[in-house]
## 1
Amino acid sequence: MVTFKQFFIELRDFCYHLNLKQGGRPDKFSLMAKLWGFFFSYFGAVVFIVTQTLAHFGILQKYGLFREMSFKTIVLGIIFFLLPTELFLLYMLRKVRDTPIPEVLPPEKYKQGMRRYAIGTVIGLLLMWGVGFYFVSFLRGRLHW
């Protein structure tokens, strides 16, 4: 059984080598962009559940949050959606920084990493899409489980 830390290390190594194969530079920003693309949909789904639940029970309306497009809405969107993903990735990268990235990734590990990255991203996007449609319908009483 692979622990989450081992999974994250393998994903980090794959993203590093994917960036090199695509002609990118081996810097922290490029690595973060690939990891961010993988994990954002999962955090987006969780944040969407929380915000829709708060909206359903009138908490967002009570405090006037997300009522109209304004600077406050943009700042709250950044805080709710972008900040948790960024903090999680920084925390995990700090936790695994002692594990070196291998100079060469064997072709079978690269193919396995590509499958994991693609399937994980698709599952995350489907989760975010499913939460967007089905959870809101469930809260509004149009869908019964």
## 2
Amino acid sequence: NIDGNNDVVIIEKDGTSESFSIANAIKLITESKNREIELLEKILRDKEKFQLLSEDKIDQLNNELKKRTKELSRAEGYVKQMLQKVESRQEFLEDISYKNALELFLKGNLVGAMESLKIDELEIEVEKTENEVKSKKKNLADSFILKAEILDLQNQQAESESAYKRAIEVLPDEYSYSRIAEHFSYHKNYLSAIENYEAAYKISSSELSRIKITNSIGKYYYLSENLNDAETWLLKSIELNNKLMAHGGGNKKGLAMSLNNLATVYASDITLENSKAERLFSDALQIIREDILDSDNDYRDLYAATLANRGLLYSLKNQATESENYFKEALEIRDTLAKSKDNSIRTARLLINLGALNQYADNQDIPKNYFLRAKGIYNELFNLDPFNVYHEYRFAISNLNKIYLQNNSYDEYNSEIEELVKKSNYLVSKEPKKFGFDIAQMLFVIADEIFERMKDLSLAIEKLNQSLDILQKLPPNDLHVYNLLHKVKSKITELNK
């Protein structure tokens, strides 16, 4: 420690101490510079030697003297400053080698001080400690991510997002950002998904990961209806993949996925020729058919998705036969895939597309069976995740009920409506603000349908009263709620008359 303004005191562990003046410490440490200055001064004071020097040499020596004097002054200031810093940090200094080196340094033994430092050993120790801390941070971040997934399954979305964000605070790496991006994409918050995927892209060091991330960003820009940015990111994904493949790396599956997604972007852009989309779908299917592995579930999932997207393209061109063939081939593959929530949803969508293509068939059992099978899948999914599959489930019922009404199958129609209302009431009871208005509006439409097609006055009024009951629990200052409430009350009055 520094005793007053003048003395440095070194206290050993055994209690003995040694003290010396700061000036003496400085003198010892700056000894070599003092010798250089003394030598220069001696030359300049020696008249005989001085007379032999040229003016240039005299100027050179004077400049050198000034330089050495400045260096000495800077060294003295540095030593004073260093002593003060060491004193303020000494409670944190635990390494014996550093303390020994510091003592030798203060006594002017710079060579001994340098030899006493154990920098290589300390570097290894620090690296080991940093790895331990990093491992613990990874474990903590993974724990927050698992907590987020559990909360998500319990439909606690806000709490789940908070847990994901804590994972990023603990360890802001590619994995954490990608996981919260997946969470946002699942809940159709595509802009937040994009924001986090872009953060993952910036810090990703793996080219294969960057290919996957750029593809995801392009996909979610497409789902956000931002076709320009979707095209930009998907082209970037394809470019990255092609560069790697040119050097024996890359990912054929990833390339096929990007081509499929870019084709979907072009197919949905009414300003473009569909031939561009057709070419990309063909390229994607060619890669998949050449490289597909029967045991690779993900590859066959991509195969089915690409076939389905090409089927949609043909349906947009009113080429029903080609569209149906692609949908059926996609369905055959999906029926062989391992059971999962995603595969079930995509299977149900294929069935609805096939039902819609056959809605005017002479044999109405064909579309009806497609819609019934889709409804069965959505019934299973509703038990697992009612909030995210409800609207697709309702769409399947709507298509099925059109067939029942066309065929005057009112008992089947009523049965489907009762089941739909039951599921709808469950969602309203859980999240009235999110589902209330939408379901009240649906009940109003159903009531009108029942009255116009079935002429069942009492059942129509029953559905209107159910709609009214939901609307009366919603904020009355909402203009949409107010207008629908007025229409429902007017319709009830009209039917009662």
## 3
Amino acid sequence: MAGYTRVGDVTRWLRLRDLSCETRWLWLALFTDSSRVIPGLWRGGIGAMSDLANFDRHQTVRCLDQLLEHDLIEYDATHGVLRLTELPDAWEWPMNGSTLIAWWRRFLDVPACPVRDAHLKLVWWLIETATRDSTLRAGRKNEISADIRETWEATFGQIPMPTKRRQGVKRLLDEDTSTPVQPSLFAASPVPTPVQPILSAASPNTTELLVRHGVDHPGERERDSSPDLGSGSSLSPESGEQVPDQIPEHTPPPGPPPTPVRVATVIPMAESEFAIRRKMGDEIWDSLNGRRNALAMELGLDPPRVLHDQLPGRRALAERLRESGDHARDDADHVLAICEAEARASGSMQWFAGCMFEPKSWAFKLALTLADAVQNGKRVRDRQQSANEVVGEVFADLARQEQLELHRGDTS
């Protein structure tokens, strides 16, 4: 897909009116993301959506719930497929059969699932609506071109158009993701059974924190002597029984003392994977800006502009770190070192920027060594010098021809 999305005035679309600001932001990020499959169809998990919108996971889930409640999206968490059920306009439509074939190839990369197949309706809506609008403006007959219709029958037309059905789930919290081992990912934490900690001297020199389930404290046996509200009255107006003012204490039968349970050491909750990855990305991005400044001073160049964190390269860095998993930091440091060596050898800063984190560039840099990077930089410098010499010769020839023409004009 192109690095931009052609849209109309989204702010006037009434379907977004009742959404919160952060939900609108997530919807707009999904709508305009350059890595989407085709217009309105997006592939990825909640972590990828969080990186895309610069949210944490809780914000993302909350926004997805609101979008699901308003029937603006459908989401298949199992296959990681999300689709927008409606679009504000049909500006981004396949204008010819070649574009439709490119869409079809990308469509086949998505796992087959009901959410993916349901998107056929929106693709056909784009074609019909855009054709109608364009033909009305041109004053022609409202008719889809034969090229698009034949291409549709050979591609998307092979998939049966799904019947009308319920738009996914209404809330992510309603989805039952529990297993016998793993509880539901979205369910509320269960309320723990209250336990009573007591201190017991296990030895003369140590004191252990013990928990006894179902054991009364000595102080718990003392009841409050103040009368309770309604004490001495009947359970109900119709019953003739009276509730005694004091309930006799139940004495447990004799038996072996309960075994004390040692409380496990409380371990602080570790940072989430998303928070760790975001912190790592910020450190790498700051390191890139620092290296650019230092290299510019070393080469005697003007100070470069600061790369702010809203550039596409920052989002590409987040995607590469997520894909690299446990090797994310090592891979990023290697790519930075390779690009810095190339920039130093070529004497140019043009490629020492966020574009190194794009998929093709990232994969290419990972395969290089520092020696390869130096050779590449030298080749770039030599080509630039040769190009400058050629351009200089061309301008010199133009200047000589201009002088000759002026001289001929003077002699005539």
## 4
Amino acid sequence: MSRWHLRAGCTALCMIFGLGLTLARSRAQEPSAPAALTITVQPGARQTFAGFGASVFPWTPAGVYKTQVTSAQNAQMARLIWRDARFRSVRLWIHPGEEPVSYYVDGYVGTGKLPAAMAAGAHDLILAPDHIPPAMNDGKGFIKDAEIPRYAALLADFIVEFKRQ
């Protein structure tokens, strides 16, 4: 069976991030069973480890992405990450209030990145706003206390509109 590998030793994660790296096709053996992993937790630990995840970025429009990555390549990368590597979370980056929601629907759904991840076994979607809109920022990188309800509403509206589209 053929496997897709990225040149220069990059992992398949780089391509799903939309970096547009060139794929090289090579023959590889079927992946072996995952090795056992032992994690030792000290008594009194309070947090449950839910698994690994990866970020997906919407910056490349679907019309461009699909000229660089075929549907088969996209599905194969998703299977390598979310099925074979057993990642379960997908982090979706957004710039709250700066781009229309349709931009993100195109970059995540239109490219096939998110549907492929979900089909390959991703379970959890994590919305990752990467900054605070300037009007809500206190100038030190924190949200103004008075802006918290408006920021929460901005994110909630984004989620509703993303699901609607």
